[in-house]
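thread: overnight batch results

M.L. [08:02]
morning all. the overnight job finished for the chain we discussed friday. pasting input first so we're all looking at the same thing
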Amino acid sequence: IKEIKLPPIKKDPYPKALKKEAASRILDTVFNYPYQERFSKFLRYRNHAILATMLLAGLRKSELLQLKLTEVDMELGTLRVHGKGDKKRLVPMSSSLKLSLCPVLK
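M.L. [08:03]
and the structure it wrote out:
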């Protein structure tokens, strides 16, 4: 029996998607976190916008870090993203992402 080799177990090559409830809990936690009084409003909206952009637009961390203000088009509701291998793509924004970005971009 020790000589019998088992076939290799194939792993799923794709990461598991975050459930909508889990994403909502993350965004609620970030928004309701007890920030220091002095910076609370700025940090609350900034951190919520960062995580909302990643979760609601599907951006990678590296794509978010490279995103410039000029690449956010609120009128058209799009983000111009520089992805892996310097590939560029246009990502649509949902209405909830627009609402999250509005306080930060004003």
